[in-house]
Amino acid sequence: MTIKPPKIVVIGAGSAIFGLGALSTLMQYPAMKGTELALCDINAEGLEVIHKLADKMNQSWDAGMTITSSTERRNLLPDADFVIVSIQVGQREDVWERDWRIPLKHGVRQPYAENGGPGSFSHMARNLPLIIDIARDMEDLCPDAYYLNLVNPLIRLTTAVHKYTNIKVVGLCHQLLWGIAMAGTILADRWDIEIPEHFHVHTDAQNMANFIPVAREAVKHLDVKAAGINHFSWVYDIRDKQTGEDLYPELRDKWLNHYRKDFEPLSREIFEIYGLMPTAGDSHMCEYLPLVTDPITKPWEKYDLKLQSWEGNRARRAYREKLARDIVSGAVDVDEL
């Protein structure tokens, strides 16, 4: 029996941050060869660049995909097997900054304003109507497809699709990689992983140049299993990928007794209290802990909880947009992705 290659619709494909990463991953994964890939974005100019980039990847990496695109998602949804959704209502950095600054005027100093607190509510309320509208279109045009949601606040939005529509939905996040990077940092001597001075895993455009190499090396060596909710999950098993050795005792001893106390200090303290290592890093995990907003004790100072660099993210977005255009024009090799 011949198995038909899947049809994957990517809504929000024109994003310079998400689009480039998602496409390069799909194109280079052997099991995806022959897939029908449909790209959707309301930004026609950005979508055109990403479509041309996808064509170039497809040819260069022999992915064997059939690629289409449209600014109208209903043109692409019929017969879809999977619908990947990565959208944002409003300019991401602009609305995120407002989600942080407006509560601050009323005495609420949030640690991050993305997935917890009043900023998270605003974030959810902006995106929810579109998230549900996409699911309604799927009910009409591809009712058996899986809705793969990558939009934050992930738990609230994924729950809404599950509760209020008939569509099968899964929330996806790559946050486990941050936990792997933290464990790889603590255990770096085992595999001679080079750790930059004062290294941390804060999700910030300016830190990505340090974070990505460490994470890539750690993934080669660590088999990590975790459970929980998005940005609030816990490692329950960690082993050497080659030997199967249980690394939890060594990780626990080194981090709690023999490593820098300024390395993700909130995660370290939570690890010490509860006995399991949190995976998300301080800046993400803290959103689930009301104690970090206390205006008297100011725990953001004690734990050095960092905000997003909105200007840094804008600069990273501009860089990624230029990279996409340069690859399409031939000025940069596609393998640079």
Describe this structure in words.
Strands 3-2-1-4-5-6 form a 6-stranded parallel sheet, with helices on both faces. The protein has a 3-stranded antiparallel sheet with strand order 7-8-9. It has 2 domains: 7-171, 3-Layer(aba) Sandwich (Rossmann fold); 176-302, no CATH class. The model has no long low-confidence stretch (mean pLDDT 94). It contains 13 helices and 9 strands. The protein is α/β, with parallel strands linked by helices and 337 residues long. It has helices spanning 18-28, 44-60, 92-105, 117-141, 154-164, 176-186, 188-191, 208-221, 248-257, 265-274, 282-285, 299-302, 310-329, and strands at residues 7-11, 36-40, 66-70, 82-85, 146-149, 168-171, 222-229, 232-240, 277-278.
Task: List its salient traits.
single chain, 337 residues, alpha/beta, Rossmann fold, 2 domains, six-stranded parallel sheet, three-stranded antiparallel sheet, 13 helices, 9 strands
CATH class of the largest domain: Alpha Beta
Determine the mean pLDDT. 94
Helical content class:
40-55%
Morphology call: globular
For the secondary structure, the number of strands is 9
Per DSSP, the total helix count is 13
What's the number of structural domains? 2
- Largest sheet properties: 6 strands, parallel
CATH topology of the largest domain: Rossmann fold
> What's the helix-strand series?
EHEHEEHHEHEHHHEEHHEHHH
The residue ranges in which pLDDT falls below 50 over 5 or more consecutive positions are none
Name of the CATH superfamily of the largest domain: NAD(P)-binding Rossmann-like Domain
- End-to-end distance, in Å? 36 Å
| Second CATH tier, the architecture of the largest domain | 3-Layer(aba) Sandwich
